[in-house]
Design goal:
Strand content: 25-35%
Shape: elongated
Order of helices and strands: HHHEEEHEHEEHHEHEEE
Length: about 240
């Protein structure tokens, strides 16, 4: 209950109650919150107090607002440690997340940007695997991976979805990716990306570029858009 004699402001006390409701599951992910009027009546506070508490939750990344529809609970962010080589498919299950992938396209093509990143001739044949990566049934990344056809000629989209990309390279060609160089850039999601990621256009995201090696040989150029509200990177500095 709220304590008006406390040194802690009422809106902060209310925010703590709301946060506990979210973390304990009283307010499940993606559920709509009660209206401001309902919260005012329930807790006996002013509309301003409720608004300040909700704004605090939004700043924490615990809720989001839909124009004209109210506030909703965000799913907890997926966390990825950046302290060693990782892949989403292999690392996230260790943190209690269920990872699924949807194959958007699988093509054989040439792409100058990927070829340059992989230090290959501009017209080098590449497999392009485009996937929608999901954690706990919610999309978090739209990913394109480019693999030189010559290093794994038997690669298919079906195998990638069934086994994962890196596992497929290992099983089909004995290639074990073990190092990567990544760069991150803040961007806004465009309309087509928003549709695929089931979010709205102009939402914050990360543009991730990754060049992966196996035993010193460049094997993948990856270009991803990662939802800013679904993924949190933790960097370990030593």
């Amino acid at each position: 209950m709220l304590d008006e004699s406390s040194a802690i402001p009422l809106y902060r006390q209310l925010q703590n109650i709301f946060q506990n409701n979210i973390e304990s599951g009283v307010w499940p992910a993606e559920e709509k919150l009660p209206t401001e009027s309902e919260l005012c009546r329930q807790y006996g506070v002013s509309r301003m107090t409720v608004r300040l508490a909700l704004e605090g939750l939004k700043t924490q990344g615990l809720i989001y607002r839909k124009q004209g529809k109210g506030s909703y609970i965000l799913q907890p962010k997926v966390e990825q440690e950046l302290s060693s080589f990782y892949s989403f498919g292999n690392n996230m299950p260790d943190h209690g997340h269920t990872i699924t992938n949807q194959l958007i396209s699988f093509e054989r093509l040439s792409y100058a940007v990927a070829a340059e990143a992989l230090r290959l001739p501009e017209k080098e044949a590449l497999f392009c695997v485009q996937r929608l990566r999901c954690a706990d049934n919610t999309p978090f990344a739209l990913e394109k991976s480019y693999i030189p056809c010559k290093i794994c000629p038997d690669l298919t989209g079906g195998i990638v979805i069934e086994k994962g990309l890196y596992n497929s390279l290992h099983l089909l060609a004995g290639i074990t990716p073990n190092t990567a160089k990544e760069s991150f850039e803040a961007v806004l999601v465009n309309k087509s990306q928003a549709e695929a990621l089931k979010t709205t256009a102009n939402q914050p995201a990360l543009h991730l570029e990754r060049v992966t090696s196996a035993g010193g040989v460049l094997v993948e150029y990856c270009d991803s858009i990662v939802r800013g509200d679904r993924l949190k990177y933790n960097i370990v500095l030593r």
